[in-house]
Fold this protein.
Amino acid sequence: MADKVKILVVGLGNMGASHASAYHRSDGFEIVGIMSRTIKSNKKIPKELAGYPLYEDFDLALKETKPNAVSINSWPNTHAEYALKAIAANCHVFMEKPLATNIADAEKVVAAARAKNRKLVLGYILRVHPSWIKFIEVGKTLGKPLVMRLNLNQQSSGSAWHWHKNLIDSLIPIVDCGVHYVDVMCQLTGAKPVRVHGIGAKLWAEADKQNYGHLHVTFDDGSVGWYEAGWGPMMSETAYFVKDVVGPKGAVSIVAGQSASSAKEAEEVSDSADIDRHTKTDALKIHYAQVDGDKNFSKPDEIVSMEDEPGHQELCDREQAFFLRAIREDLDLTEQMDAAVNSLRIVLAAEQSIAEKRTVELT
C-alpha cells in the first residue's frame, strides 16, 4: 500500500473545512497540521478535526510539520505567497481559486510548480461535478457561435455577511467567483478569448470594493458570454442562478429548484448564499431548434434529471481524490494550470475594464 501523503491544511473557512474533512476521511492523506492566522482564538474547530496540531504562522507550520503537500484555502491575497513557499519546500499544492490576485503572481506559481515538478491542482469544483460535465458536453453539440449566460448573485446575512465582506477585501465578486464560470465558457467554446468588457457598482457601504459586477467576453469563434455576480444584504434573489447556453442548434439550461421557504431569520444564511446551492443543478433542460415544414418544433424539449448529484462535501472529496491521483500517478496537469491562468486573465481584464471604463483587448 502506498504511503499516505502528509498534508498541511491552510485555512478553515467554508472550503478549508470541507477539504480538511476530505483529508481526514481519506485513506490516502494524513493531516499533519492545520494553519489559520486566528485559529487558536477565533476559530471553532470541527469535532472531527479536533486533535490535529494547530498553527497561526505559515512558515512555522511548514517547518515543523514537514508535509508532502499543502492545501491552501486562505484569503486570496495569500494564495501566491503560500504556494511559492510550499513549492520551494518540495510540496505538492492544492489551492482554492483564484490562483493569485494578479497574472504575474499566477504565472510565477505555475512556473515554480513546473520547475520543481510539483503537482498544482486548483479548486475548480465544477470540473469534478457530473452535472456540469454533462452541461458542457451538451453545450458543445449546439453549434457555433455560442451565447453563454451565467450568474450567481448572493444575499449576505449572518455568517455570509462576514465572509462576503472579507472576500471583497481581497477581490471583487466577478473575479473571485468569475474564474469558475469563465473556465466553463472556455471549455464550451474551445476558442480564444479576445475582448473583455466589465461594469460594476458599489452598493455596500461596509465593503471595501465594488460588490456588484457584470463582465462580457468575446471569443475568436464569434461566441459571446456574460457573467454577473453580486454579494451583499441588498442583493435580489430574483434570477440569481442563471446557467444557460444557446447555439444555432438549440439551448441547454441548468434548472435549479428555488427554495419556497418563508423569509429566514437574520442570522441564517440565505438560499442564494448556501454553498450547496452554488453547484446544485436539479435538472438540465435541453431545447432543440429544429423545426418541421410548418415551422413548428420537430422535437420536444428534454429534461434530464440530476436528482442523485453529489453535494458540496462529496464534490470536495472528489477534488481531493483527484489531487491524490495526480500525486501518485504523476498526472500531467498542464491543461488545468493553463486554464486557471487563462480564466484569471479574463476576469482581471474585466476588473481593469471597470476601472478604466473601456473594453480590454486580450493579446
In short: The chain has a mean pLDDT of 92. Residues 168 and 271 are 20 Å apart (CA to CA). The chain has ten helices and 16 strands. The two ends are 48 Å apart (CA to CA).
